[in-house]
Amino acid sequence: MEKDLIDFIAKSIELTFNAISRVETLNLDILFAYDQERKQYNSTSILAYLKPNTEKGSYSLAITKRDLYTNNSTFVFGEAEVGGRVGIVSLARLSIDPRELYKIIVLKEVTHELGHILGLRHCETNYCVMSFSTNLKEVEQKSFKFCPDCAHSLVYLAAF
Ligand SMILES: [Zn+2]
Ligand SMILES: [Zn+2]
After folding, report:
1. Whose atoms come closest to the Cα of 138: which ligand?
2. Whose atoms come closest to the Cα of 113: which ligand?
3. Catalytic annotation on 113?
């Protein structure tokens, strides 16, 4: 994973969530999640692996270059346990130029999955980072921020 991307994501997360981020390289063999026919990795299986390996009181958000799917979708940009502790984002379908735009696109997906981890569901407000995106264009169109309703819910959820 490129250092400029990871540094940018880690710093942005700290600002958005007022949290401390720690970057770790997982030399994890995710072959157990690989589907030979689809040539994709099952994100739900990876989350199940990450969960018991996440320290109490912290959250894990994995980033991979592998293409991910779930049992009810052909591919996913990411998946997270709503109100849970773990999430994952795939970079496989996020390629876009220039680099600065690419970093923002990745940040949107990371923020989206972290929002799920913290208990948020999909949002109907189309510019909100919690709106559901089915393609890269939709990711491009939404902002990297939470709408006022989601931001309010986050503060409320964080209090419990
Ligand atoms: Zn989502
Ligand atoms: Zn929202």
Report:
1. 1
2. 1
3. yes
Marked catalytic residue, from 79, 81, 109, 113: 113
pTM to 2 decimal places: 0.96
| Pairing between β-strand 60-64 and β-strand 86-90 as defined by DSSP bridges | parallel
Query: Ligand 1 centroid vs 92 CA: distance in angstroms?
Result: 17
Question: How many domains are contained in the chain?
Answer: 1
- Cα separation of 127 and 86, whole Å? 24
What CATH number is associated with residue 40?
3.40.390.10
Mean pLDDT of successive 10-residue stretches along the chain, which has 160 residues: 96 94 92 97 97 91 97 96 96 96 98 97 97 96 97 83
- Print the domain residue range for 25: 3-158
What is the C-alpha to C-alpha distance for residues 118 and 76, in angstroms, rounded to an integer? Answer: 19
